[in-house]
Specification:
Radius of gyration: 13 Å
Number of strands: 11
Distance between the termini: 37 Å
Helix content: under 10%
Order of helices and strands: EEEEEEEEEHEE
Structural class: mainly beta
Largest sheet: 7 strands, mixed
Length: 124
């Protein structure tokens, strides 16, 4: 099983990026997928997740700015990030687990699978 994130980079405040998480080796439709991020000096936090039924959840700090979506045919999950702020600077990770609670960060359990992460830097 492999998860790989793409799409990170440097963007100015107010700009947009779209991250993608390409999944191989598992049936994506049977897993909940979450996006996490870890800023320098901070703990990793769950920011958005999508369940197997397509229901979506967002951390308050990104709700209204970020949109998660999944394409089970392409085995890819996306995170559209708009109106980016400097505090969004972090390494972004995608994770897969059968449990929504795990990929939302609500459960302390570690997701079954992680990607290596992609750096997002918001700076002028």
């Amino acid at each position: 099983v492999q998860l790989v994130e793409f799409g990170g980079g440097l963007v100015q405040p107010g700009g947009s990026l779209r991250l993608s998480c390409t999944v191989s080796g598992l049936r994506l439709e049977t897993y909940a997928i979450g996006w996490f991020r870890q800023a320098p000096g901070k703990e990793r936090e769950g920011i958005s997740c999508v369940n197997t039924d397509g229901s979506k959840y967002y951390k308050a700090s990104v709700e209204g700015r970020f949109t998660i979506s999944r394409d089970n045919v392409e085995n890819t999950v996306y995170l559209q990030m708009n109106s980016l702020k400097s505090e969004d600077t972090a390494i972004y990770y995608c994770a897969a687990d059968p449990s929504l609670a795990v990929v939302s960060g609500a459960s302390p359990a570690r997701p079954d699978y992680w990607g290596p992460g992609t750096q997002v830097t918001v700076s002028s």
